[in-house]
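User: I'm putting together a teaching handout on how multi-component assemblies are represented. Below are the sequence lines for each component of a complex, exactly as they appear in our records. Could you produce the 3D structure of the whole assembly as structure tokens, so the students can see both representations side by side? Please keep the chain order the same as the input.
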Amino acid sequence: MAPSIHPLIDNGNQKGEPNFSGGTLHCHCPTNKVEVTLSSNVLHNHACGCSKCWKPSNALFSVVGVIPTDKLRVTANAHKLHIVDPSAAIQRNACKECGVHLFGRIEQDHAFKGLDFVHVELSDEKGWQEPQFAAFVSSIIEQGFEPSGIEGVREKFREAGLQTYDVLSPALMDVIATYTGKKNGKLSSKL
Ligand SMILES: [Zn+2]
Ligand SMILES: [Zn+2]
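Assistant: Of course. Below is the structure of the complete assembly, with chains in the same order as your input.
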């Protein structure tokens, strides 16, 4: 059986709705689910092959998007959340019981501060922005994927209409570089 890239991408990349206004995410517990309510659509939704993002079982990639922090509220069973790795730049809040990551938040000074990282497949609603690109593709090799199969993985993304990168997309790398350039004084802070 061919490995799953991600359930949202395996059968073609379904387009989101431009006026979609949000919905609720749930963890995988059978009862007393942690619920997170998002009051807008996500941005920069993408597949990610890094080892830190939460992936559904059997999937090689995570699908992760961002949303402004003020558009996210934990609306049920918040007591079940814990932070997976308190030393990481992204504080990933996961359910203690089922292990699903509900949202990742940046508390330290960072280019993406003010944005939370979320996985829209935890929602039953349709209309979320579809994945726009694939990031950190080669990272799946570090997690045990046979290097000889990696071009086949890139081909699957291309078939789904997604560009593949081995870091983030150029647009997001530019955001990080701009932040770093301002911070180290090489770039005008007025930009
Ligand atoms: Zn749970
Ligand atoms: Zn990742």
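A couple of points students might notice: The first strand starts at residue 23 and ends at 26. The mean pLDDT is 95.
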